[in-house]
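=== RUN LOG ===
request id: a7f3
mode: sequence -> structure
chains: 1
length: 212
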Amino acid sequence: MQVQRLGFISSGHQYPYTYLLSRVSHLYPSGITGAYVSELTRDGIFNALYNRRVISNSDFGRPYIRFSINDVIAGQDDSTVYVANATSTREIKLLLAQDGAPQSALLQAASPWLSDPDWGTTVQIFKNGYLWREQSIDVPVTELSFFDNTNITGASYDGSIEINGGYYVNEESETPINPANLNTNGADFYFVRILYSMGRVSAVGPIWIEIL
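=== RESULT ===
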């Protein structure tokens, strides 16, 4: 799959204020979504959304992030990497190009940085829901590569609670669940979270790892 463009499909900033009550008068705006598309058309954008070829961003910033494992990027081939055995090497790659725009604030319209941008950033890679690798960077463009050949174990959630004879993910949940279904059927997964010094957050993934 050739990914040609990254298009951002929301204005991101909420000033004038949105009618959504959870955002009115808050110091933060809604997020913005970046979609990897082969063509900048309505069909191309919705195809990217349906296949999860996206970047989520906490405000109007527009970084370029390319996350892949064994050359499968998030959203390609159902976001799944198939390996020969439980200790097959997985090469996790990340390309990050920051945009340098300042974090949004109350009554502050989106604007590009003009001078002295802050490139301080922490890249976090999560595996099966837990922080696996973390690296600080201070440059606008960086490429990172990590290798993992530890056993593929899959993930499960064992924190559900019993209330009146039913099981729930937590005490705030309204929908009962079957705890036996809260697992990945032996597949591992990775996703990326990026914490910028100015307060912005981006995320990409997950990518799943399954044994053939």
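=== NOTES ===
The chain is about 5% helix and 40% strand.
Confidence is low (pLDDT under 50) at residues 9-24.
=== END ===
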